[in-house]
Amino acid sequence: MNDSAPLRRPDRPAVLLIGMPGCGKSTVGKPLAERLNVPFVDPDLLIIAGEGGTVLGDVSENLDREEFLEVETRYNLAVPSEPSVVAPGGSVIYCTPAMERFRTFAVTVWLDVPVEALEPRLGCLKERAVVIAPGATLHDLAAERRPLLEQWADLRIDAADRSPEALVDEIAGRLAE
Ligand SMILES: Nc1ncnc2c1ncn2[C@@H]1O[C@H](COP(=O)(O)OP(=O)(O)OP(=O)(O)O)[C@@H](O)[C@H]1O
Ligand SMILES: O=C(O)C1=C[C@@H](O)[C@@H](O)[C@H](O)C1
Ligand SMILES: [Mg+2]
Q1: What is the end-to-end Cα distance of the chain in Å, rounded?
Q2: Is residue 96 a contact partner of residue 152, using CB atoms and an 8 Å limit?
Q3: How far is the CA of 57 from the centre of ligand 2 (A)?
Q4: Position 8 in a domain
Q5: Binding residues for substrate
């Protein structure tokens, strides 16, 4: 990731949002897609629809970590390589084959939100099926994921204390640079 490099990548028509669970990928992704006039894709919703259940926890409850990530990888590999805004679950950064494929057609934007702001946003981590080791805290998870987020991101957005509308403005502006 190089924060100062020009971002516009005409050969990459999609935008992939990454970040910690609850950072706002789904919330920001939808209006961003409207602004860019492209479809919005939330692979978590496709997983629920395809695997059955009403929340991701219904899908993950009988799967171990690796089995769940295999399911997540499979659904993310099936996202069309077309103009779109894609907002997968935060754990997509562990799905290396899917991330490598996204890199061929999407600019990856990391919504960076501090743990203190995430805690009140996140309800039940189990219902959300957050991929977190037993006994680990959100701080532990953020420390584990930060290097991966840095590795995959083309652009990091400081998304603390900012409305979804303000984030859409900033991301759309950076994409147009
Ligand atoms: N910029 C923001 N300001 C305040 N609250 C926000 C903001 N973005 C999202 N939220 C709230 O945070 C919660 C989680 O947001 P969201 O579901 O979009 O996160 P996510 O990044 O998609 O998480 P996941 O990785 O679990 O899919 C929601 O209740 C949403 O309303
Ligand atoms: O960041 C995470 O670990 C996750 C976030 C959820 O939205 C889901 O995508 C998934 O169950 C895991
Ligand atoms: Mg989401």
Answers
A1: 17
A2: no
A3: 10
A4: no
A5: 44, 90, 145
Q: How many domains does the chain have?
A: 1
Indicate which CATH number applies to the domain containing 35: 3.40.50.300
In a domain, 9, yes or no: no
Ligand 1 centroid to Cα of residue 11, in Å, is 29
What gap in Å lies between CA 23 and CA 90, rounded to an integer? 9
Binning the chain into helix, strand and coil, the percentages to the nearest 5 are 50, 10, 40
> Which two structure tokens, joined as six digits, stand for 15?
């935008």
What ipTM did this prediction achieve? Answer: 0.97
The type of residue at 118 is L
Q: For the whole model, what pTM was predicted?
A: 0.95
The beta strands (E) that lie in the chain are given as 14-18, 40-41, 85-86, 106-112, 155-158
Residue 102 is which amino acid?
A: F
**pLDDT (tens digit, 9 = 90+) per residue, 13-68?**
899 999 999 999 999 999 999 999 999 999 999 999 999 988 888 889 889 999 99
